[in-house]
Amino acid sequence: MIVARVWWSPPGSDEVYTLEPSQGGTSCFRFTPFSSSDKYPSIEIKGHVITSEAPIPGTITVTKPFDNFSTDKASHLNCVTKAISQISDGTLEKVVVARIKSIISDATPEVTFKLKCEKHPDAFVYLIDHPSCGVWCGASPELLVASSDNRVETVSLAGTRIIVNGTSTNDWTNKERHEQSQVTDYIKSVLEDYGASEMSIEPRADRRYGNLLHLETRFRCSIKGDIQKLASTLHPTPAVGGRPLKIACDFIESNEQFSRAYYSGYLGVETASGSAYYVNLRAAQWMVGGIQIYAGGGIVEGSIPQDEWMETEAKIKAIEATFA
């Protein structure tokens, strides 16, 4: 029998945790795809949270055959151009266009996980090995929702700038501020629909992730109810889908040449003392002899196709920097 295993390190912590599987366990690790299906089911691992060391190389056996498909530049630019056209005619306000890059590599997920923990201490770093999804590893900068004693926290994260020699290459543009504002407005409306009280919204601020810079707005409020249900309602936010949501998701399904699988879904841990879920960004899937990397960017009015390609290139390089 194949046993599901998972390791993670929360933001701001140098501790690694794992889940000791048990159907009677008080905690649950959830790994949810962008869009649930028979091929990509939502995964739950129940058990007891314990501290752990990072898994040593050889702990995990990768079995999924390597798929060498990559989104070529022309296809990505064409998809972005089509999105801009639909935004111009009013069909869409925003849509996130993603791409996939497959590389031949002997980098191990165990070493990669450890390097991600070291390089991205402010991200949610995880490594999962499960018979239903295979082997995935990532370091997400984006909180979807966290809850403790009915106090809820979430963030609106969007917009990307590249940092060179410690400095952002450009100032934030109106296009990027507008893109991030759309995510902020969406999250605020969902929280209000859930009866949020004592809501505080922090001023928009810069959030650094490796050599990338994003715009972030942080929410705090009180909400009673099921945190996992709130997470499933928030997902997908305009940060990974778009607006209007259904039209944007239909565009993604029709125009991206691959399935996102678990990329841009959400994942995290629910315990008796509190829960936290993160958007599955900066993610990669391990296959026999290779790795598939996922990256995307939000397309809004004012987007430039070549710039959008370069943004995904920067995100992919940030992921590749932890392969060893």
Question: How are the SSEs ordered, and which strands pair?
Answer:
Elements (H helix, E strand, L loop, with lengths): L4 E5 L6 E6 L5 E6 L10 E10 L20 H16 L5 E11 L4 H11 L4 E7 L3 E7 L2 E6 L2 E14 L2 E2 L5 H20 L3 E5 L3 E5 L2 E11 L4 H8 L7 E2 L1 H11 L10 E5 L4 E5 L3 E5 L2 E10 L5 H16 L4
Antiparallel strand pairs: 1-2, 1-6, 2-4, 3-4, 3-15, 5-14, 5-18, 6-7, 7-17, 8-9, 8-16, 9-10, 9-13, 11-13, 12-13, 15-16, 17-18
Helix pairs in contact: 1-6
Task: Describe the protein.
- By secondary structure, the protein is an alpha+beta fold.
- It has one domain: Anthranilate synthase (4-Layer Sandwich).
- Helices cover 25% and strands 38% of the residues.
- It has six helices and 18 strands.
- The protein has an 18-stranded antiparallel β-sheet that branches.
- The chain is globular.
- It starts with a strand and ends with a helix.
- The mean pLDDT is 95.
CATH architecture: 4-Layer Sandwich
Q: Please give the radius of gyration in angstroms.
A: 19 Å
CATH topology, anyone?
Anthranilate synthase
Order of helices and strands: EEEEHEHEEEEEHEEEHEHEEEEH
Tally of DSSP β-strands: 18
The overall pLDDT, averaged over residues, is 95
Distance between the terminal alpha carbons, to the nearest Å? 30 Å
Poorly predicted regions: none
**Gross morphology:** globular
Going by helix content, strand content and strand pairing, the class is alpha+beta
CATH superfamily: Anthranilate synthase
